[in-house]
Amino acid sequence: MGELSLSSHNVAAAAGTVGAGGAAPRRDRWWAGWPLSVLFLGFPLWWVLGMTEFVFFLAAVPMAWSLISRKTVIAPRGFGWWIGFLAVVLVSATMLTSDAPFSTTGPLGGTLLTYVYRLCWYVVVTVVLLYIGNTDKTRLPTQRVVRLLGYMFVVTAFGGLLGVLAPNFEFSSALELVLPRSIGANKFLHALIHPATADIQNVLGFAQPRPRAPYAYANSWGANLSFFLPFFLYAWFGRESGWRRIAGWPVLVVAAIPVVYSLNRGLWAVLVVGALYAVVQVIRLRGFHAMAWLAPVAVVAVVAALLSPLPTMISERLAHQHSNDRRSELAVKTIESTVKGSPLIGFGNTRDVEGSFGSIAGGATLGCPACAVPPFGTQGHLWLVVFTQGLLGTALFLAFFLVRFARHVRSREPITMIGLAVLIFFLIEILVYDTLGAPLFTLMIALGLMWRDERDAKAVTPS
């Protein structure tokens, strides 16, 4: 199955008219990508305003309007799998009030709130994928999008550093102040709209700050940093980086500090995988003689890591793996509950675990709030999809990304290799992080750029 056209008009209309010279005017190029520019360049402001989650929804509105205004909208190969997944998301809403094994059903109001929130995110990431893929390069240059995402790495790195230096800093956002107290006090919404630099958690047996600014959770910070990293490296150290090549090294040093102190094992793992991926790609493109300069770089990196606090932090983290058993048992129970209760379409939303795994009467207490088991569908995006959209939804969800991976895995184009790195990070992190949000948004941008590049390359290849 090839690319999907959502109109009977010709495909050329999807890219828009760029004028007789083949290049769009400078003003038109700015206008084409203004939602992304406003979204990313203003991100520190959106954090102060308490809108870092909802600004993505607002940015998707003009992008959706741009798509609706076109005579033709095309979609990438494998998009049918994603449409099928979205259909399951909608159908799974019929299970919101159904009982799930080993869980308790919460109030319908709160359940609807989180269901609609996640549904909106799935719509938003779909819109940005189609928007990127249907906007011509002359109007929205790839390099511009890459630089915006590279800029987000800088924002995330300095936000993490702020979390290390001022871990107790927090304040009421503008959105928090204008919302009715009853709404702002909602635990779920409060985490999204209340700016804080770090989460203080008892991971190592004592209170330890884990950087989170400018995001809602520490794990979100780690996922976003890893997804932005490939774009940063290309934009700040590539051929057209200019002055950024010099400034990029201090930024990497800044980013390394919160990475070490984040206690994000998932982040540490994908950074190792990313380094191995980079080595493989360099050897693939330049041959084994590239090892002549790769080896010294590797030695310097290893020595720097050994001299940093990282080995101590890793050993401490490995010595306190109390969350591992809980995570693994939660994953097993999530699958068991789904298979027994609603194997095809899941339960539409997360559910609180009944008691604890040890006892139905167990759970959080005043003296031990951490004794509560996390809800079914948390502790990883994969488990969210399994529990909320069932095995059918999970198969469709994974099929879309695997099809896109297979389409591009042999490419030697820089933007495609960047996108593949992000996709690999995603497939690893969905086991431990909730990537529904800014990380999935970034991945869809990467997929859109890869798909657009592939399509344009085919258009100029003689048949």
SSE sequence, one letter per element: EHHHHHEHEHHHHHEEHHHHHHEHHH
Structural class: mainly alpha
Oligomer: single chain
For the largest beta-sheet, the strand count, sense and barrel status come to: 2 strands, antiparallel
Low-pLDDT parts are: 8-24, 358-370
Number of β-strand runs: 6
How many individual helices? 20
Q: Helical amount among residues, as a percent range?
A: 55-70%
Q: Give me the side-by-side strand order of the main sheet.
A: 1-2
Gap between N and C termini, in Å?
19 Å
Overall 3D geometry? globular
The average pLDDT is 83
Portion in beta strands: under 5%
Radius of gyration equals 23 Å
Output the keywords.
globular, mainly alpha, 463 residues, 20 helices, two-stranded antiparallel sheet, 64% helix, two-stranded antiparallel ribbon
